[in-house]
Amino acid sequence: MVTLLAIAGTALAARAILCPPWPGCSASEQALRQGRAAEAIDLNADPVGSLIRLPEIGPKRAQAIVEYRTRPGHRPFRRLEDLENVSGIGEGIVREVARDQAFIRFSSSPQTP
């Protein structure tokens, strides 16, 4: 039992060193962010159900993102600021989404859900 506790303690210490906390986040928010880190959201490919996990992005805004990226002539999102081209998303919302930027990725080609 003592050996198991020592191994667990070592693993937790290593994780604390390798996964630094996000500044300004509570312990519970940091735990949530670490859990989400493995599930990056792709603005060019993910469906509405995934997009709503972003801050300030509910079902309506997520649907607007999907509709925007599937319009003819649309260029894929390459940076967060490109979200401002979507109806209903402004600078303030992009600023909130940017707080989770570590969990966002951009595939090269948009996909429909």
Compact description:
The chain has helices at 2-18, 27-36, 48-51, 59-69, 91-98; strands spanning 41-42, 104-105. It is mainly α and 113 residues long.
Give the key terms:
single chain; 113 residues; mainly alpha; DNA polymerase, domain 1; 2 domains; two-stranded parallel ribbon; globular
Characterization of this structure:
- This protein has 113 residues and is mostly helical.
- It folds into 2 domains: 33 residues; 65 residues, DNA polymerase, domain 1.
- It is 44% helix and 4% strand.
- The chain has 5 helices and 2 strands, in the order H-H-E-H-H-H-E.
- It has a two-stranded parallel ribbon with strand order 1-2.
- About 11% of the residues have low confidence.
From the alpha-carbon coordinates, what is the Rg to the nearest angstrom?
18 Å
**What ranges have pLDDT less than 50 throughout 5 or more consecutive residues?**
8-19
How large a portion of the residues is in β-strands, by DSSP E?
A: under 5%
Name of the level-1 CATH class of the largest domain: Mainly Alpha
Main pleated-sheet profile: 2 strands, parallel
SSE layout and pairing:
Blueprint: H1 2-18, H2 27-36, E1 41-42, H3 48-51, H4 59-69, H5 91-98, E2 104-105
Parallel strand pairs: 1-2
